[in-house]
Design goal:
- The protein has about 100 residues and is mainly beta.
- It has a single domain (about 10-90), classed as Nucleotidyltransferase, domain 5 (2-Layer Sandwich).
- It has helices at about 45-50, 80, and strands at about 10-20, 25-30, 35-40, 40-45, 60, 85, 90.
- The strands form two sheets. Strands 1, 2, 3, 4 and 5 form a five-stranded mixed β-sheet that branches.
- Strand 1 (about 10-20) and strand 2 (about 25-30) form a beta hairpin.
- The longest helix is centred in the middle third of the chain and has 6 residues, at about 45-50.
- The protein is globular, with a radius of gyration of 20 Å.
- About 5% of the residues are buried.
Length: about 100
C-alpha cells in the first residue's frame, strides 16, 4: 500500500536523538522561522520508531557514541593513550597503535 503524505505543515519538526538504557531518548521541537517550540522529551523503544514518527522529523541530530567497550566506559585500553583532554574537547595525539613491543 503506498503511503500518502500528510497535510503541509506550517512548521518543521526537528529532533535530537541519543541512545539510553530503555531505547532512544528523543528531544523534539517545532521550528517555524525564528520560533523554536520544544516538546517534552520522550523515550522510544527502537530507532525505527524514531524514523517512523509522524509528523516526520525534517532533521534528526543523532548523538550515538562509538568506541565504548562492553562495560559502558572507555578507559585503560590502548585507545586511551591516543586521547588527551583539551579545553575544547578531545584531541587525537597519535594515529599509530602498537599493541606489542616495539
Amino acid at each position: 500500500m503506498p503511503s500518502r503524505p500528510g497535510p503541509e505543515l506550517p512548521y518543521s519538526v526537528v529532533a535530537g536523538v541519543t541512545p539510553c538504557a530503555p531505547g532512544w531518548l528523543v528531544a523534539s521541537a517545532k521550528l517555524n522561522g525564528p520560533t523554536f517550540a520544544p516538546e517534552l522529551p520522550r523515550v522510544l523503544a527502537t530507532f525505527a520508531e524514531v524514523l517512523d514518527e509522524r509528523p516526520s522529523f525534517s532533521v534528526i541530530a543523532l548523538n550515538a557514541p562509538i568506541g565504548y567497550v562492553d562495560g559502558g566506559h572507555m578507559g585503560g585500553g590502548p585507545v586511551t593513550a591516543w586521547l588527551e583532554p583539551s579545553w575544547d574537547g578531545v584531541v587525537l595525539r597519535s594515529t599509530t597503535l602498537r599493541l606489542g613491543p616495539p
